[in-house]
Amino acid sequence: MPSFAAIKGGIEMNNGAFLQINEFFERYATALESFDTKHMSLHYSIPCTMISDDSTNLFTEASKLEGLFNQGTGFYKQFGIAHARPEIWSKRPISDRVAQVKLRWQYYDVLKQPVYNCDYFYIMKLDKNNQWKIELSVSVNEKENMDKWIAEKK
């Protein structure tokens, strides 16, 4: 179904803002690789929602979101994951200030050998300062791919 912006005559999202999505995910990957959970959480709107097949979590406090990221970085450290690369598959404006992004995260060890990958959908919105923030994060297959990788390591 077309968005309201499409119906009213086309998406008017600033092309520069749309291109900034790539840079946004590069900065997010840098924060992830340095285990900087505070910086990771700054990429999200508060409140934000994270969805997977097993759960739906609404975060109304940045500290709670940062706590979740602390758990994740603990996993990465434990299993030697040192690098993350976002591969954007698609970006689609939904309205003038909202976009849908589909990407694959590829994780690597310290030798830059592939570890596992996973797919995500994001709904992002330009905030009042025209900076992208993640409003909704949907994990398509991360748990399954992590579990498979861990089982193969044994």
Structural description of this entry:
The structure is a single chain. The chain is 37% helix and 38% strand. The protein has 154 residues and is of the alpha+beta class. The protein has a single domain, classed as Nuclear Transport Factor 2, Chain: A, CATH 3.10.450. Strand 4 (98-109) and strand 5 form a beta hairpin. Mean pLDDT is 89; it is low at 1-11.
What would the CATH topology be? Nuclear Transport Factor 2, Chain: A
CATH architecture: Roll
Structural class: alpha+beta
Share of helix among residues? 25-40%
Identify the strand order in the major beta sheet.
Answer: 2-1-6-5-4-3
Quaternary organisation of the protein chains: single chain
Overall shape? globular
Instruction: Give the domain tally.
Output: 1
Secondary structure: elements and pairs:
Blueprint: H1 4-7, H2 15-33, H3 37-41, E1 44-51, E2 56-59, H4 62-78, E3 81-93, E4 98-109, E5 114-126, E6 132-139, H5 142-153
Parallel strand pairs: 1-6
Antiparallel strand pairs: 1-2, 3-4, 4-5, 5-6
Quick structural overview:
This protein has 154 residues and is of the alpha+beta class. 37% of the residues lie in helices and 38% in strands.
